[in-house]
Design goal:
Elements lengths: L1 E12 L1 H12 L3 H14 L6 H11 L1 H14 L3 H8 L13 E5 L2 E8 L7 E7 L7 E6 L3 E2 L1 E4 L4 E8 L9 H11 L3 H10 L5 E7 L5 E7 L2 E5 L3 E2 L15 H13 L6 H9 L15 E9 L4 E6 L5 E4 H5 L8 E6 L11
Parallel strand pairs: 1-4
Antiparallel strand pairs: 1-16, 2-3, 2-12, 3-13, 4-5, 5-6, 5-7, 7-8, 8-9, 9-10, 10-11, 13-14, 14-15
Helix pairs in contact: 1-4, 3-4, 4-5
Length: about 350
């Protein structure tokens, strides 16, 4: 067993100021040293055209470009380097994850299954000062992206990896999720934007809002499809030609969820379904890039969420109270993973 943690960061202000704060918090950490060590290998695999990236953010979320500028200034990097490393536009890294998502009338629950060495240990609550953007809560990926999350309107989102073959120009999963959370208030709006935005790779995006409207958007570089569904794993049900050939584990978890799912399932039952090993959805396959690192449960109607690292009871976060100005009483989540792999953000 190995104890790991996720630091909880909060910020209220402009996107540029938010970028500066994150850069200042990041630059002297083991996570940043690891990211810098990896970047030369990544640059041999792909490039980012700065003009293309600016055009994309100007079209879909200009505030994030301002955040990238603040991050660039704080880290002492050129804007080209920052776009390459953190923009979520045209980025590449190894993806072979699991992930399972369940949604009900008043919740969305999600297992994040991946290799622990990729984890950042960062969880953010951010309230933009610009009126056109929504406040959000959730864990990060590649600093600016979001693994899953909820916004102040109660819109929630999580994604499942399907494949990264035949990529095309577009945003990666975590940046698509970040843009959705800060710019959309309902499932319908999120579907419209996910259909419009370009996708770099193929993922399922599971969405639920404060009205309990649940949809799965199957997104790929070659198009999207929308289906009414309340749970998802790592394969498409409509765009089946996009699926990988080896879907045994994805379909096993899908069938296990289907077996226990009921239309009146509540948030506590959704958490148990994903996090309790007896249901055979939670995974300890960390060395195989498919172990459950965290389980998130978002409650759109209450503006509350629960978060657990590994297999344990979750910690509740009152997002609604924080939005009203109350500060959190804790600054870190901790938990245990059944693994001995080295975790770079912890300095290993």
């Amino acid at each position: 067993m190995k104890q790991i943690h996720s630091n909880v960061l909060t910020y209220r202000g402009s996107h540029y100021e938010f970028g500066v704060m994150q850069g200042e918090r990041l630059k002297n950490t083991p996570l940043y040293a690891y990211q810098q060590k990896q970047k030369e290998r990544n640059r041999r695999r792909f490039t980012v055209d700065s003009a293309d990236a600016f055009r994309m953010f100007r079209s879909y979320h200009p505030g994030i470009y301002e955040e990238l500028t603040g991050l660039s200034d704080a880290l002492g990097l050129s804007i080209d380097e920052t776009l390459m490393d953190y923009s979520g536009f045209q980025q590449e890294w190894r993806i072979n994850s699991g992930c399972s998502i369940v949604a009900g009338n008043d919740f969305l629950a999600r297992n994040y299954d991946y290799h622990p060495k990729t984890y950042e240990g960062r969880f953010l609550l951010y309230q933009p000062s610009e009126q056109e953007y929504f406040a959000t809560i959730g864990p990060t990926q590649r600093i600016l992206g979001r693994i899953d999350g909820m916004n102040e309107k109660g819109l929630t989102i999580g994604y499942n990896f399907v494949h990264q073959r035949f990529p095309e120009e577009g945003f990666i999963c975590n940046m698509l999720s970040r843009i959705i959370l800060e710019t959309c208030s309902t499932t319908e709006e999120a579907i419209e934007k996910l259909t419009e935005m370009p996708h770099r790779h193929s993922f399922n995006y599971v969405i639920n809002d404060a009205a309990g409207v649940r949809r799965v958007v199957e997104g790929s570089p070659r198009g999207t499809a929308v289906r009414e569904a309340s749970f998802s794993t790592n394969h498409f049900e409509v765009l089946t030609k996009e699926n990988r050939h080896h879907l045994v584990d994805s379909k096993r978890r899908f069938d296990n969820i289907h077996k226990h799912y009921t239309e009146n399932i509540n948030a506590a039952e959704g958490f148990s379904l994903l996090n309790d090993p007896q249901h055979d959805v939670f995974s300890d396959q960390y060395r195989n890039w498919g172990g459950t690192i965290h389980t998130s449960v978002y409650k759109p109607k209450e503006l509350r969420m629960e978060f657990a690292i590994g297999n344990q009871q979750p910690t509740e976060v009152d997002f609604g109270s924080w939005l009203k100005g109350e500060e959190l009483s804790f600054s870190q989540f901790t938990g245990d993973l059944d693994t001995d792999v080295r975790i770079p953000y912890m300095g290993e």
